[in-house]
Amino acid sequence: MSRTASSTAQDFVPFATAALDFHRALNLPGGPLVTTRAELDALHGHLISLHGLLDAHAVRVGGLVPAEGEQLGVARTRIWQAADHLHAAFHAAPHPDSGEMPGPEACRVGLPEGAPELTVCQRHQRAAHLARRRTTPTDLHAPFTGLIRR
Fold this sequence. Notes:
- By secondary structure, this protein is mainly α.
- It is built from six helices and no strands.
- Helix 2 (37-62) runs parallel beside helix 5.
- The two termini are 31 Å apart.
């Protein structure tokens, strides 16, 4: 069994990275001072996709090379923590129309912002199930990254 991908497989991760770099270079220098709720939603979606990709790698590799799988699992947990903070930032950002901010209870109803434009809460709740299945509550809230300096 080969550890490398097929030579015919497309690797789209560099394109996603380039797109984020391009977005930052174009939109942040002259853009608004405050991040919009739509951008926070899009960034959250990006992190949740990355979380799923790291999960697939961690599960697949973990059976073959446990040490590598463990490190990928730690990276998956940290990406989840970042996504959780983005979700919180989304709810801390004011509405563009009214300037009001929904309370934490708004997330529990599923789509406090209205479908289909912003689906951050539904996406976050779906991803939370995976995060809880793959990690312990201690891991989810641990500030320590597991990295050891050598």
